[in-house]
Each structure stands twice: as C-alpha cells, then as structure tokens.
C-alpha cells in the first residue's frame, strides 16, 4: 500500500525545511547549493509551496537576549485548577504576561510548562505577582535557568536522510 500522499514533502522539501529552520535569511541561491537544487527560482517555488501546503509558517528572527540584558531566564511549572475550558482560559492569560516565550500544556501533575525571560529577578517577581492573581492557577513552581545548553532549534526536527518510503 502506498502511504505517500501528494502533499507529503519530498527529499528536497525536507532539506529545504531543515535549512530554513536553521537560518531563513539565506538567499535562494545559497539554499539551493546546500540542498542540491541549483536554480534559485526552483528554491523560491518550493518555499512558496511549503508555505501554501502549511508545512512552514512565516519567517522569524531570533532575538539576541544578551543585547537586551535579558539574562534571567526561567521555567515556570503551573498546576491549574480544573474547570470548564481551563486549558484555553489559563493558556490565554499566561500568553498575555510579559516576557513569556512559550507555553506547553502537558500531562502529569503539572499542567503547563512556561518559559520566560527577564532582565533580572525583580522584573520576574513582578510577573510572579501577576501569576498569583490568576484564579485558574492552583500553584506554581519556578526554576531559574543558569545556562542554556541548547535553545529551541527546529532544524533538528526534520531529518531529510530518512527513507521517505518508510513513512
């Protein structure tokens, strides 16, 4: 049975996605040389196709936190009070707090893992005060990040070397 669908990415799409997630500022010519397509217009068409097919969304810049003195990263573990639509309600409130980078709803005794970054402890404590005001939160537990070994890097999520027939 052929499990390959027309919208599935091929090897060149996967190589392109890996390159774009690593550095989307590369020119089409640079990208083409790295993925084995030597026509910049072919790379451009593939980028548009990836976007149209919903395989990639937008292009983002990575903020250099050091240049903004954002050297107080934290991981906030949140236990929620269960209730009707509590995930959506609390997720929206968390999303609107300053300094929040990402929010994950997870299983287990913790409901959300929240990553944030601040200039200092005082700035974070002001956000912690806002967390205490959110009625959907049962409790929080914060960990200060001392050193980031590897930050979020979606370029490792795609492996163009897999056998596409095995998907």
Fold blueprint:
Layout: H1 11-22, H2 28-35, H3 40-52, E1 72-80, H4 86-95, E2 100-105, E3 112-118, H5 121-132, E4 137-144
Antiparallel strand pairs: 1-3, 1-4, 2-3
General description of the model:
- The protein is of the alpha+beta class.
- It folds into 2 domains: about 10-60, Winged helix-like DNA-binding domain superfamily/Winged helix DNA-binding domain (Arc Repressor Mutant, subunit A, Orthogonal Bundle), CATH 1.10.10; about 65-145, Alpha-Beta Plaits (2-Layer Sandwich).
- Helix content is about 35%, strand content about 20%.
- The chain has helices at about 10-20, 30-35, 40-50, 85-95, 120-130, and strands at about 70-80, 100-105, 110-120, 135-145.
- A 4-stranded antiparallel sheet has the order 2-3-1-4, with helices on one face.
- A hairpin with a 6-residue loop joins β2 and β3.
- The longest helix has 13 residues, at about 40-50.
- The termini are close together.
- The model has no long low-confidence stretch (mean pLDDT about 90).
Number of helices: 5
The residue-averaged pLDDT reads 90
CATH architecture of the largest domain: 2-Layer Sandwich
CATH superfamily annotation of the largest domain: Lrp/AsnC effector binding domain/regulation of amino acid metabolism (RAM) domain
Largest sheet, strands/sense/barrel: 4 strands, antiparallel
Structure class: alpha+beta
User: Can you list the strand order of the major beta sheet?
Assistant: 2-3-1-4
Q: State the shape.
A: elongated
Q: What is the class of the largest domain in the CATH system?
A: Alpha Beta
Residues in β-strands, percent: 15-25%
Q: What is the β-strand count?
A: 4
Q: Level of helix content? A: 25-40%
The arrangement of helices and strands along the chain is HHHEHEEHE
């Amino acid at each position: 049975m052929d499990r390959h669908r027309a919208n599935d990415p091929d090897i060149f799409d996967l190589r392109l996605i890996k390159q774009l997630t690593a550095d989307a500022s590369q020119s089409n010519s640079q990208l083409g040389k790295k993925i084995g397509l030597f026509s910049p217009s072919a790379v451009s068409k593939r980028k548009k196709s990836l976007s149209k097919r919903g395989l990639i969304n937008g292009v983002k810049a990575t903020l250099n936190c050091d240049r903004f003195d954002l050297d107080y990263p934290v991981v906030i573990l949140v236990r929620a009070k269960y209730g009707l639509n509590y995930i959506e309600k609390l997720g929206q409130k968390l999303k609107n707090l300053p300094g929040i980078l990402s929010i994950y709803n997870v299983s287990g005794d913790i409901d959300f893992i929240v990553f944030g970054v601040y200039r200092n402890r005082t700035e974070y404590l002001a956000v912690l005060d806002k967390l205490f005001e959110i009625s959907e939160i049962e409790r929080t537990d914060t960990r200060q990040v001392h050193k980031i070994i590897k930050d979020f890097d979606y370029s490792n999520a795609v492996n163009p070397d897999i056998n596409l027939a095995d998907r």
